[in-house]
Every structure is written in C-alpha cells, then in structure tokens.
User: What shape does this take?
Amino acid sequence: MGMRVLIVNPHVGEGFGQERVLRDSVHLLRAAGHRVGILAEKLTGEAPEHDALWLIPGLSSIHWLTRPGHVAELHRTASAALTHFSPDVVHFYDQFDYRFMDWCRKRFLTVMTSHTVATTCPSSTRQIYPTGTCESKSGWRCLTQHHHNQCLSFLKTPVHRAHAIENHLRRQSVLKQMHGIGAISQYVRRTLLEDGFTPQKVQLLYNPITLPEPFTRVASPTPLLLSACRLNDHKGVSGFLEALKKIEALPWRAQICGDGPLGSALKKRTFDLGLNDRVVFRGRVAFAEVQELMKKATLFVQPNLGPEPFGLSVAEASAYGLPSVVSKVAALDEIVEEGTNGFLVEPGNSKALADKLSLLLRDETLRERLSQAGPQLIQKRFSPKHHLQETLKLYKAPSKEITLPLELTS
Assistant: This one.
C-alpha cells in the first residue's frame, strides 16, 4: 500500500537544482504508487505532477522580526493543509521556521534533506578563508569566526547576528530530533556529524541523475568549453579566464551560463585579457537550454575555490558524456573520478587547469574514453532507482517496513 508523502520547499516548479531534484523525487514516488502533496511558498513555472498542492506566501520567510500574529496565521494555514492531507511522512527540502518544523515533528514522521551546508552554518555557506574552508562547529563561536573573517557581514548589527545564531541553534535543535536527515553528499554528511547530529539519523541521499535520451552529439569545428555556475568568488570563474588566456593559441570557444554579483567584473576581466571575442556570458538560462549546450559542448569546466554540497551541473554534464575538469574539492570529487570521467585540479591553480584543458583539447582519443565512461559512472552512483530506494529507507519508521513495488526491485 502506498504512502502519503508531503514535500515542503520554499519554491516548486522551475528553479535551481533543488527544485529539479524535488520534481524528479515527486515523479519517482508517484510512479512507485505513493501519493505526494506539495507545500510551498511560491510556484515558478509548471509544478510537477502531484496529488495535492498548497501555496502559502511568506511561509519560508519568517524571521525573528516577523509579527507574531502573522507567524501564527501562516502556521494555522500550513497546519490546516497538513491536517487535511494527513501525511505518513513530512519531507522538508529546506529549513523553515523552527516552530513550524517542531509542530510537524511532534505530529508526523518528519525528515529533511540537507541540500546545502545551511544546516550547519548560520551564514548558509562554509566560507573560504586564507587558511581554508571553515570547519568550525556552528554556534555562538560563529561570532568569534565573524570577528576574524566577516562571514556574517550580510547581517547589519551584532544584535542581528546574535538573533541569526540563536534561530540557527533553535532550528538545529528541532532538526536533530527529526526521524532522519538525508545528506546529498559525503561532504554534507560529514559537516552534519561534526556539528553533533546522530550518525544513525544521518543518511547519504545522493541526488537522482537521469541519463538523457539517446542523442547525436553535434560536432563543432571549434571545441566548446562550457561552464554553468553562479558568478561569485566561490565558483572561481576568474581562474577559468586566466587558464583560457594560457591556452589562447589553441582553437576553442567558451560559454558561461549563470549570473551573480561578479558578472560585470568578470566581463571586464575577459575584455582586459583580450578574450571577449571567444568567451560568451549567457546569463541565467533555463535548464533546457543548458541541456542543449551540453549536447554540443566538448568539455565541462567547474573551477571552484571551495567545496560544493553536491555539484548537480557537473553530474548532469557527465551524464551527457562531457569530460569534466573540476577543482579537487568536496563534493565534486564524489562525482568526477580522476582519469575516468574527467580530471581534478587544485583549486585556484590556473596553470594546472590550463594544462588539463590543453591535454583534452589535443587528445581526441582521451576525450572519447572519458565521454564513454561518464554516463556509466553516473548511472552507477546516482541512478533514480537508487535515490528512490534510499528515500524510502529514510522514511522507514521503526515499526513500519517499506518495500519497493516488484517492478522497481529488479
């Protein structure tokens, strides 16, 4: 008999990787005979097929200054939706107001997927410092970390920072009492365990990657280097440009998909390097357009300076048979296997990046070998079938055994 699963996320529809994973998970659960409801704040584009959908504007935006009466009203509306749907499992895809999550936890079997390191960091990202990525346990010591590294500078005053940490600790206390937490990579799982989460409750739950339908790769007379990422310091796009300058004698063109605070500065740097006629910044584009570019591209590049919770675009590129050159950081090193479906280079080392790009541009046989291995590796590690199995395992209550339908167990 199927379960009733309510998925809770700020946005539903088209969006970033988290929304794509939500869509795929809903599809897998419903195909396996389970009923799925969705509770969200905002619909962007078309929602995945579902059995019930509630949109409650403002639900994910509650903070310590939100008027108590408004908080109570939002919670009443959300609790009415949950009571009406009567789920067997409430599955949070993001953190919400700790009072709402605690209400759910006390009434339903409740789990959360940790898609980012926000669960273990009040600034929602493990900052990169001259000495490396922050590895500190979160809590009041984050005020000391901020004093040295300004990691909470987006909060205006010490009072705001103190409230942010207090809310972070309250949310984390509720999360630690949930039935289970899914970590989308070994890196995210490690940060959870280091922050005091119970090992028995933290389960590895890789994102599902669906292999594309068979397609004919469009051969390009000039090799195309593709990158798709946020244009901020963390992604290391400036180092990518420096590497491209070092191989400008080779034939290539590059396209970079994404937007962010460094967009203007990176375009200026491209012009200063004399690469503006070979490098195109496409801005934020729909995922369908990125997929079309993956069919035409020669290589995929992601030169991060610090870790990724997962690296969805890298996994999807490998599923399309694109050899990838990425930084040797967590969790990209869980997706790219050195010499199998791509290469790993030291973060911030533009020469090492240039050397690997040059090697692959010159060696078509090597590119073909990496291209053939990519989809096989992705299917082995991140298949939708495995994601469904692990999701249902996360939902398994001590007194309730959940099994896959016969056709999905083969």
Observations:
- Residues 143 and 161 are 8 Å apart (CA to CA).
- The mean pLDDT is 90.
- Residues 158-176 form the longest helix (19 residues).
